[in-house]
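Predict the 3D structure for this chain.
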Amino acid sequence: MTTAIAALSSTAGRSHLQESLFSWLAPESTPPLPETKALVESDPEGPPEPPAEEEKVDLSHVWVVAAEIEVIPKIAKVADYRGSFKATEGQRIDALEVYCKGCRRPYDEVTGQDCSAKIDNRHLIGGDQSTRAKRKIPVPPRNARVVPGGRIQRRGIEAYVGGVSRPPR
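Done. Predicted structure below.
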């Protein structure tokens, strides 16, 4: 049996396939544009980035209606248990008040203005918490005496037997 050995050319065969397979690894040798080169030399940080477009915050009110709806006793029981119910079609609902869900202010006072709760909601939590006054300790009456109580054991078997860590029955 005779075996013929022939050299593979670079245009046909495996070596050409390997070169094309890994050609993306070779660095590109494109000359830089003259404008870019001048800019890089004068400003080492590169070209300034375009300003990012900021998303506008939605400051509009979310309106809710406090309503009064007459229901039958069966629906009243479901509403009391679940906290919600389904109204019947065509039922008339009397609106007691229309106000913003966020800032809780009436419609006629703040219509056309931005919602203050979305801007700063400190007014809803009693003002700035860092500058708010501390709670006042009540002063006992003049003729009152403070009587110290017994020591309460909160840990160990004594606490369990005493009922401190047990749920009430």
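Helices lie at 14-21, 34-42, 73-82, 107-110, 116-119, 156-162.
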